Amino acid sequence: MAQISLNPSQASNLAKDIYALTELPSIELATSFLNKKHGNLFEFSDNKLLKGKTGGPGFIKCRTGFGYCLEGKHQLQGHAFILFRGTQYLADWLTNLNVLVSKSSYNQSVHDGFNSAFKSMKPKLTQFTSTFSSKKIHTVHCIGHSLGGAVATLCGEWLKASQNIKPFIYTFGSPRVGLQGFSSICTTSIGSDRIFRAYHKTDIVPYIPIWPYVHTPDSGTEYFLPSPGVIPGGEFHSMTKYISSVSNASWSSLSALKPEKKTDAGIAQWLKQKGPVGVTISALDWLNSAIFFVIKKCVASAQWLMAKAMGTSATIMDRIAYILSQGVNLEENISSWVVYLIGKIMSFLGYARTVSQKELNRQFIQSVFTQLQQKLNTIAQNALSQTLVQGRAI
């Protein structure tokens, strides 16, 4: 039986409407609202509610209404929908700040905060998927915005790994979910043509966490949506803006909009350029590409570095610092690239001074990368907090 994806307007409206769970005073009112709006296609009820647990290390975790597991009716008969809301409560954002890694359904390294939130919903998801055969479900759609997009991606991977189901995945303003292995196995096992990742140019959330986290899919099409300005912010993270950007468009037409692609030659030239680095979307994009560029040079000169660094229980920042500090000692032309990179990051952080090769020990590099992560988290928190103040669902 042919399986058909949702169009951008259908997917984005579902991603927005699921925020009724946090915007309305109670679950009962949210359920009533959703049934009035979508009752001709779905039945929302308490027994279809997904409850997720979110929170960061050292903080109280809270369990909240996180989405719904739904079977389609009428023209959507045979379709299942798994909807996840995004970040709105403080505990949700603490989940975003948890940068440790854990293992996904295919045993790949992913963001532990996102993974923990997903795992808290697995019992309900397992119960839901166990009915697919009797209900003759043939197509599954996983939909989410922001943190919900990250969880939807993990859910899609789990469906393929545990149920051998190739779902459609639709995300809006999703952060990066896992490392390269996770992105690659999702892309090859599910198919890049079934993964629809839409993001605005100035939405800060898709730019975090920094490399080695990467987006899914790692090949094929991504849906880049232009937005005004150069400063990373939260205004164009709202689902209202996403709905406006994809209204009356097809995935095919949206795919024609392409972001600037980075080449190794271009990255090398950018690293060598002198002058301050502003806090802009362009600078974030260049920094992320430059980190990968320099890491590749270090690892290419000593292949054992990556295996040794990734084979520990250290945090991502520990591992990057280890690789780069060892790269400084490999050979002169490699160390110069590490100097360029750390200099660019320090400029982005607001430091006016230059950095010398002698300073580049593991502790110094780790401190610089930790400050970078903290600055990005602060930018994101401030941007999203302002979005909440203005009354938009995030």
Please give a handful of descriptors for the protein shown:
alpha/beta; 394 residues
Structural class: alpha/beta
Distance between the termini: 36 Å
For the sheet with most strands, the description reads: 7 strands, mixed
* Rg result: 21 Å
Helix fraction bin: 40-55%
Inertia-based shape: elongated
Assembly type of the shown chains?
single chain
Strand order of the largest sheet: 1-2-3-6-7-8-9
What share of the residues does DSSP label as strand, in percent?
Answer: 5-15%
Number of strands: 9
Mean pLDDT: 84
- Please tally the helical runs, counting DSSP H or I stretches of 4 or more residues: 16
Structure notes:
By secondary structure, the chain is an alpha/beta fold. 47% of the residues lie in helices and 12% in strands. The chain has 16 helices and 9 strands. The strands form 2 sheets. Strands 1-2-3-6-7-8-9 form a 7-stranded mixed sheet, sandwiched between helices. The chain has a two-stranded antiparallel ribbon with strand order 4-5. Strand 7, helix 8 (180-190) and strand 8 form a beta-alpha-beta unit. Helix 12 (281-301) crosses helix 14, helix 14 packs across helix 15 (332-348) and helix 15 runs parallel beside helix 16 (362-389). The longest helix is centred in the last third of the chain and has 28 residues, at 362-389. The radius of gyration is 21 Å and the shape is elongated. 46% of the residues are buried.
